[in-house]
Design brief:
The protein has 360 residues and is an alpha+beta fold. 43% of the residues lie in helices and 15% in strands. Helix 3 (51-68) packs antiparallel against helix 12 (348-356) and helix 9 (241-248) crosses helix 10 (260-272).
Length: 360
Amino acid sequence: MALTFFSQQEWDKILSPVLRAAVPKAGICRNFPRAMVYAPIALQGVGVPHPYGLQVIKHLDMLLRHPANQTKTGAFLEAWTLSAPQSLSSLAVPRSTRAGSSSTLRVLTYQPKPSSILDLWHHFGSLAESGSHGWVPEVITIEGSADRLVQALLASTLGAVSNGSYKAKVGTACAQILTEDRRDIIWITCQTPGKFEDQSSTRSELIGLMASLLVLDWMSQAAQLKRFASQPSVEMACDGLIALDKSFSEVHLSSSGAQFDLVSTIRTVLRHLPLQVHRRHVKGHLDKHRPFFQLDWWEQRNVEEDSKAQAYHRLLESTGRSAASNPRFFHELVSLFIDGVKSSKLDQAHIMELVSLPAL
């Protein structure tokens, strides 16, 4: 159905003789309201999938999945949408549902040339505040010298450690990007974006990785690093093994998989960074089993991040800031909005409800 564009009325006409013959065989009145025939069983309907809904789901899946997985179809779709920005409107999508696409490189271009990491943070933060596109961490502080941090990046001696916290449908994360001697540190703290039902410990770990990669991207821009040149390397540590596996895997993503928006965005950042990023898994909560001084360098940093992420979680709860928006990320190739709210994945059952049920 990826290439079919029948309207809902056309599908109803096609299926009319089929249903008139099939519905009585199921013990249902021939003239039973078609809205109830197509309605999900969970809503006391018959649960017959509407072909128009299947068509819409296939279209949305194609728009989300192919660009994220860098397929040939994805390259074609990106070229298509760049040459005809309004072309997505020709797809048969339900009311209040839309998918957006853009060029990653165009979105990330910074003018004028940045002078510091904090300049970039403020610049992209102002872009995020001006509309629904873009996300930056709420808190970034630098201890020591930003210049020495950039030099450590160029010398491949920089480390990045992140950790997430999740409790009562609220997620937070903290990260630090630092030199080996810990004289120079970038501290990053943020709330996990997304609806309450999107929140999980894995999503919090993912946003910690995302925040670290954003700052590394800004550092690369400040150092004027170019892709395909001699690339410095950075080791990135996290105790969330699932988050690391999802982010650094080359297995194609499913648009209906959990945290699709974050995982696909992280993979895009990793592809475009002029850096070699190496993953490291650190076991979490080791301070519960051994004294802090007996932990290695990475394990100690992980404990510090965990403590700060939990402290920020308590701050959000105490100030009543538990709800978080879910804006489209700067590096997010394609995003799906329903009723003006970005979805973290393609929820096929919800799309089918939007298509099958009459508008209230």
